[in-house]
Amino acid sequence: MVLRKILNADLNDYFSPIFLDQPNVQQIQLNIRSLLQLYYSTHDIHLNFEYLESLETIEVVIDALISNANKLSDDLAMLHSIALAYFSVVQGGGPFGSVITDDSGQFISAGSNHVTRLNDPTAHGEVHAIRNAIYQNQSLSGAILYTSCMTCPMCYGFAIDHNVSTIKYCSTANDAYNYAGFKDDHLWTMLDSLIRHDLFQPHLFRLTGPLTIVPVRLGDGQDLISLLQSICKTHGFEPLGLRFESDQPVALSLFSYMALRWANVSMPQLIYIQPFKAKIHFDHYEYFSFLASHVLSFYRLIPTDSVYGQQYK
Ligand SMILES: [Zn+2]
Predict the structure, then answer these.
(1) For the ranges 173-182, 221-230, 254-263, which has the lowest average pLDDT?
(2) pLDDT digit string (tens) for 95-138?
(3) How close is the Cα of 182 to the center of ligand 1, in Å?
(4) Which of 44, 93, 98, 260 allows an S-S link to 147, with CB 3.0 to 4.6 Å?
(5) Cβ neighbourhood burial of 17 (10 Å; 0-12, 13-18, 19+)
(6) Quick check: pTM over 0.85?
(7) How many A from CA of 262 to the centre of ligand 1?
């Protein structure tokens, strides 16, 4: 009965500005459970929410979901990625989940947004899933990345670096903004105007900031991302006043450049993007959009300790 009501409802019934003034988190959560139950039941999978919602890490949820089948249809891989977005929110993380398979549907890895949990501005769901594959020495050449929401340019860069061939996404960037307040179109716009340039000299530069951040000079292969992660671990995923400084032109990978942007690091003019081939095929997978929108709204409406999302800037 409830299900029929949900499925026949106009989205605006749930997400109109009037509704958002009087949010009903419990109703949204009930809807998500009903929709997940319904979609999973078409794959003969019956979810035990009491158990799944009690799990404390996303890795255990992944194990529980994937234990049903290692070979995933398009539908099931996308459904898992949205389910992971939901269980991520339940665990206090961001509302984004990802699943990676090889080109025959064999499960490789999965992940969810861990930015606030790890204080790591690079730990988007897609990056988390790719890192989980790397930890297991899994090749991602030709892999398909399913993600509950359209990737940002940072995740796109990381996927390129690891030879992912296709990205299938459910929610659009507009959905992420309308339902959960996340905004990344400024980064895509910026990407269009960034000059791509190869530089042969070592990339010598510093990360500096106020208070206790010690200026660190990088070059000759030292890893910018590790350094950024270690600063953010102590100072938060958007450390206040962090600056990227260099006396000479620097070319960063798309992933590194956008990671600095997400961490709100101020950047000099003489910074280039290393050339990259835009060879990833994007595929908008709309079938579960209604469910995915509910998950984004759920995140927006639950009380949370840490504010995360670009709408607050
Ligand atoms: Zn991202």
Answers:
(1) 221-230
(2) 999 999 999 999 999 999 999 999 999 999 999 999 999 999 99
(3) 11
(4) 98
(5) exposed
(6) yes
(7) 9
Among residues 126, 238, 245, 286, the one annotated as catalytic is: 126
Mean pLDDT confidence for 146-157: 97
**Residue 297 is encoded by which pair of tokens?**
């709204």
SS3 266: strand
Distance 290 CA to ligand 1 centre (A): 21
Catalytic residue flag (residue 126): yes
Handedness of CA 257, 258, 263, 264 (dihedral sign): positive
Distance between CA atoms of residues 159 and 203, nearest Å: 23
On whether the CB atoms of residues 144 and 101 are closer than 8 A, the answer is yes
Alpha-carbon Rg of the chain, whole angstroms?
20
Cβ neighbours, 10 Å, residue 196: 12
Tokens 């206790």 correspond to what residue?
Answer: 212
- Ligand 1 centre from 126 Cα, in Å? 6
Report the alpha-carbon distance of residue 55 to residue 133 in Å, rounded: 21
- CA 67/CA 80 separation, integer angstroms: 12
Residues 6+ apart with CB under 8 A from 226: none
Per-residue pLDDT averaged across 257-278, rounded?
Answer: 89
Ligand 1 centre distance from Cα of residue 108 (Å): 19
Find the DSSP H helices in the chain.
Answer: 2-8, 11-15, 17-21, 25-41, 49-52, 58-66, 74-90, 115-118, 125-135, 153-161, 173-180, 185-193, 224-235, 254-262, 289-301
Contact call for residues 259 and 225 (beta carbons, < 8 A): yes
Bridge partners of 144, per DSSP, are 101, 166
